[in-house]
TrEMBL record:
The keyword Phosphoprotein does not apply. Keywords: Activator, Coiled coil, DNA-binding, Transcription, Transcription regulation. It comes from the Bacteria. Residues 77-104 form a coiled coil. Pfam families: MerR_1, TipAS. This is MerR family transcriptional regulator. Residues 1-71 form the HTH merR-type domain. PROSITE patterns: HTH_MERR_1 (PS00552), HTH_MERR_2 (PS50937). InterPro entries: DNA-bd_dom_put_sf (IPR009061), MerR-type_HTH_dom (IPR000551), MerR_fam (IPR047057), TipA-like_antibiotic-bd (IPR036244), TipAS_dom (IPR012925).
Length: 255
């Protein structure tokens, strides 16, 4: 009967929405549908998805991925040469991918069938499609976006873990600050806002006070950002926005 779209999403670490999109544009059309019309994916479909995600990890646009997979005349080496800088920056990630490919080749040579989980473990549970297109549309032409992309391309799994640990620590301390009833305009809240700004500067791009203020406003106006910060503590998004504003004003007075 094959695998359901939910199962494949779980195997590959992508969203069901991503798989639906791939189906709609003809990039990955499931081989079967059950009597109810639901998608069912075969092992061959999983193999194709694995190839798609490899190319997406290298930032290939979807139309180029389709060309590589469907056009027998397409030369993948030409595409790789055009992205030499990206490949160089992400050499550690590519080495892990190469090891996964070798594992797959060895398994196939020996007649061993890899489990769906094993086919996609190299991607670490991250969906390459999630937010990528929207972020490029919103900020693709900015220096901040370019710098963020350049830095992120070099980060290892350990780097991403350190980023997550820093965010978690900051969230716990901001939660405690609000629990203590500290106002957004107080010194402690402004110091936490400054730490937030410096975290962005440390890992992604130089974040000016003006740009930080724009981010603070977005944390409240964009429901997804608001939900993210409010998941740390209800009301945190608005408190942080006000603390960011107060911190920028404090800085302008000191300058």
């Amino acid at each position: 009967m094959g695998y359901s779209v939910g199962q494949v999403a779980g195997f590959a670490g992508v969203t069901v929405r991503t798989l639906h999109h791939y189906d709609e544009i003809g990039l990955l059309v499931p081989s079967e549908r059950n009597h109810a019309g639901h998608r069912r994916y075969s092992d061959a479909d999983l193999d194709r998805l694995q190839q798609i995600l490899f190319y997406r990890e290298l930032s290939f646009p979807l139309d180029e991925v389709a060309a590589l997979l469907d056009d027998p005349e397409a030369d993948p080496r030409a595409h790789l040469r055009r992205r030499h800088e990206l490949l160089t920056a992400r050499i550690e990630k590519l080495q892990k991918m190469a090891a996964a490919v070798e594992h797959a080749m060895e398994a196939r040579t020996m007649g061993i069938n890899l489990t769906p989980e094993e086919k996609f473990e190299v991607f670490g549970g991250k969906d390459p499609e999630e937010h990528a297109e929207e972020a490029e549309q919103r900020w693709g032409g900015t220096a901040e976006y370019a710098e963020s992309q350049r830095r992120a391309a070099r980060y290892t799994k350990g780097d991403w873990q350190r980023i997550q640990d820093e965010v978690a620590s900051w969230g716990e301390r901001y939660d405690a600050l609000m629990e203590a009833g500290e106002p957004a305009t107080g010194e402690r809240a402004m110091d936490m806002a400054e730490e937030h700004r410096q975290h962005i500067g440390k890992w992604f791009y130089d974040c000016s006070y003006e740009h930080h203020g724009c981010l603070g406003a977005m944390y409240v106006s964009d429901e997804r950002f608001k939900a993210y910060y409010d998941s740390m503590r209800p009301g945190l998004a608005e408190h942080l926005r006000d603390a960011i504003t107060a911190n920028a004003a404090r800085h302008s007075q000191e300058a």
